[in-house]
Specification:
The chain contains 15 helices and 15 strands. It is about 40% helix and about 20% strand. It is globular, with a radius of gyration of 21 Å. With about 375 residues, the protein is α/β, with parallel strands linked by helices. Strands 7-8-6-5-4-3-2-1-9 form a nine-stranded mixed sheet, with helices on both faces. It has two domains: about 250 residues, Aldolase class I (TIM Barrel, Alpha-Beta Barrel), CATH 3.20.20.70; about 60 residues, no CATH class.
């Protein structure tokens, strides 16, 4: 049985210049057809689904109207067996948080919110193209608390050109004052196809890698001191509040993805749904496959992925699993990027900063 379900909701009220996830502006008829198609796709897999975690990502899932969200949630509750569900997360943009919608989500069984605040500095938010203000983000946080949510994650971004250490420190301290159960702190990346990637190539935006490293280290220092466990490179949690869904990815569990652009990995098969909401909806509604990419994974590829992703977490990778890369790992150890316990390899603080490079040894 499949225990982890991802649902991609591609609609956004605003297209941020740094975001590379598949997204589009919403039109009422397009959204309604999408929901129909999504429920049909869910029905096709229902007999093999017994989810322990569900994650609504996007796009901006909270951009759905109250009635659209209600129809989607009711449909999934009708189709799926949710008796083993432990964690149900939805991503929310502070600009689209509303009291009635929050109450609806809570009553439906959603028990974890991931809110994309990104910064508490309005100038930084403007540079990122965000539609919310710091004031609105704080209002939305307390609105979710009032609705009964006891597991809220706040997403932050650092490494933004023009973002000072002072601004970043104030953002971290403001976040800590709210005491969310979970924080994600991501370094800004310049993904191909985004406006920021274009500006980078033109030389308009220039990353400061030294400052970014200092900001990463400041986050680890302040959050660790406040009692948050640094359980994955970009993620921090209070005790027992790490993301169960994301940990399933990092530890190599099977998962099913529904919706346009969503990936699935089941045993040795991986596929992606087409990155076009209209084609996804029409294909699914007509009984055709919505997949535009499929591959069979070798056991060695799966092992390499599990080792690479596992190394990014506080679990690290065990010696037995890492045996094929023993020589490379020992070389990384000489450069103080890795260290070993009695049975596991783990990243050093220096290794955290160069984790992508370390991960390349597995492929």
């Amino acid at each position: 049985m499949i225990e982890h379900l991802y649902v991609h909701i591609p609609f956004c009220p605003n297209i941020c210049p740094y975001c590379a996830f598949y997204k589009e502006s919403a039109g009422r008829e397009r959204v309604e057809l999408f929901i129909d198609a999504l429920l049909i796709e869910a029905q096709r897999h229902a007999t093999n689904l017994l989810p322990r975690t569900i994650f609504f990502g996007g796009g901006t899932p909270s951009a759905l109207s109250y009635s659209q969200m209600e129809r989607l949630l009711d449909g999934l509750q009708r189709i799926l067996n949710l008796s083993e569900l432990r964690e149900w997360t939805i991503e929310m943009n502070p600009a689209t948080v509303a009291a009635d919608k929050a109450k609806l989500l809570k009553q439906a069984g959603v028990n974890r919110i991931s809110m994309g605040v990104q910064s508490w500095d309005d100038l930084v938010l403007k540079k990122l193209g965000r539609t919310h203000s710091a004031e609105k983000a704080e209002e939305s946080f307390f609105l979710l608390r009032d609705a009964g949510f006891e597991n809220i994650s706040i997403d932050l971004i650092f490494g933004i050109p023009g973002q000072s250490m002072t601004s970043w420190r104030e953002t971290l301290e403001k976040t800590l004052s709210l005491a969310p159960e979970h924080l994600s702190a991501y370094g800004l990346t310049y993904e191909e196809g985004t406006e920021f990637f274009y500006l980078l190539n033109r030389g308009v935006m220039k990353p400061n890698t030294h400052l970014e490293a200092d900001q990463f280290e400041l986050a680890a220092q302040l959050l660790g001191k406040a009692g948050y466990e640094h359980y994955e490179i970009s993620n921090y949690a209070k005790k027992n509040y790490s993301s169960q869904h994301n940990m399933a990815y990092w530890l190599g569990s099977d998962y099913l993805g529904l919706g346009p652009s969503a990936f699935s990995t089941l045993e040795r098969e991986r596929w992606r749904n087409i990155c076009d909401t209209g084609l996804y909806s029409s294909s699914t509604m007509s009984g055709r496959t919505a997949r535009d990419f499929e591959e069979k994974l070798s056991s060695s590829t799966l092992e390499a992925e599990r080792a690479a992703f596992g190394l990014r977490t506080h679990h690290g990778v065990d010696f037995i699993r890492a045996q094929p890369w023993q020589k490379e790992l020992e070389e990384m150890e000489k450069h103080e990027l890795l260290y070993r316990t009695h049975d596991r390899w783990l990243l050093t603080p220096k290794g955290f900063l160069l984790a992508d490079s370390v991960g390349e040894i597995f492929f």
